């Protein structure tokens, strides 16, 4: 895997000893986000289907992807995946251990503050995601909007705003799934079968990695 953002899109990543973990991390994030967002949108009528996947897929698998990104010396990927893996595990633990003992108003207030804290983290990751590529930036942009809308929904107790947050969360999941799919097929072929866009430039350089990082080739 290379470290230059100017790597030609036809050049496959250099061998590092492990496969690119980013498509796994993105897929794990996408599926768990989709399940919770479908619930927030009012589409589901069952129990908390997202909860088990918050531990096993969005949590554990995404956390592992973050640890493998450390091996690849990708500070952006490792920080993003490990943080959101921890987010899902933490949210799952909260839903199991704390929420059942609290009132609905207390749970809404707690969730608002949790989401606000992650929105702060996501804001600077959104800024730096512009240095990776357009697809990754789209994931962080839609996620930022989702978190802000859900913060407002939980602080206000407005169910309609919660549904809107669910719709945007589904869009976030779709962006993450597309970026994951691009990472899989582009990594398999060494060519830009699915486009992910180019990074924004900061002066003569940029922050981040090439499309092999987090996404596959551009």
Automatic annotation (TrEMBL):
It comes from the Bacteria. This is GPR1/FUN34/yaaH family protein. It comes from Rugosimonospora africana. The chain crosses the membrane at residues 22-38, 50-68, 80-100, 112-129, 135-155, 167-185. PANTHER family: ACCUMULATION OF DYADS PROTEIN 2-RELATED (PTHR31123:SF1). GO terms for cellular component: plasma membrane. GO terms for molecular function: acetate transmembrane transporter activity. It holds the Pfam family Gpr1_Fun34_YaaH.
């Amino acid at each position: 895997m290379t470290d230059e953002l100017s790597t030609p899109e036809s050049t496959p990543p250099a061998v590092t000893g492990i496969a690119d973990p980013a498509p796994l991390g993105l897929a794990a994030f996408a599926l768990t986000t989709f399940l919770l967002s479908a619930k927030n949108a009012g589409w589901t009528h069952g129990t908390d289907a997202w909860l088990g996947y918050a531990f096993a897929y969005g949590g554990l698998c995404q956390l592992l992807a973050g640890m493998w990104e450390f091996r690849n010396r990708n500070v952006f990927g490792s920080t993003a995946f490990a943080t959101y893996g921890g987010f899902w595990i933490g949210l799952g633990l909260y839903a199991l251990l704390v929420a059942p003992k609290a009132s609905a108003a207390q749970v809404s207030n707690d969730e608002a503050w949790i989401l606000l804290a992650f929105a702060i983290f996501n804001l600077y990751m959104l800024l730096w995601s512009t240095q990776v590529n357009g697809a990754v930036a789209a994931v962080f942009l839609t996620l930022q909007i989702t978190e802000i809308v859900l913060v407002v929904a939980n602080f206000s107790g407005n169910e309609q705003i919660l549904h809107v947050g669910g719709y945007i969360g589904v869009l976030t999941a779709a962006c993450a799934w597309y970026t994951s799919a691009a990472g899989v097929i582009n990594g398999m072929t060494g060519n830009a079968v699915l486009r992910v866009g180019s990074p924004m430039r900061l002066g003569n350089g940029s922050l981040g990695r090439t499309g092999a990082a987090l996404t596959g080739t551009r």
